[in-house]
Amino acid sequence: MRVHPLLLAALLCAATGTVCAQGAPDAEATSARVLDQLDAGDFAAVTAGFDAQMSAALDADKLRAVQTQIEAAGPVTSRDAPRVTQQAGMTVVVTRIHRAQASLDATVAIDAAGRVAGLHFAPATP
Fold this sequence. Notes:
This protein is 36% helix and 28% strand. By secondary structure, the protein is of the alpha+beta class. Strands 1, 2, 3, 4 and 5 form a five-stranded antiparallel beta sheet that branches. A hairpin with a 3-residue loop joins strand 3 and strand 4. It comes from Luteimonas terrae. Pfam families: DUF3887.
């Protein structure tokens, strides 16, 4: 199944900052919690963890529409171990999610306060 990237792109806010980003273990836990909440359909909980810029750009209804498109690739079969990097003062966690019909890379950017500052889904590349 071909998954249209535009429908999968929730949002990736390119925020900058000079404060050190959230540490890797906390960032991994935050990212996993966001992905678990999305899978459970708890969009209010996901958006409650957004920073101000994300909150202004992506509400629970828009996030639900994105998740519906993602779910068209079938149920989650597994997740790979997250890859963590530091970019523009953010901790960026990329987790490959394997679904029945496609694999996706979920990117969660987390600011120094532990808030979600970016969320993006794209078809996995080999």
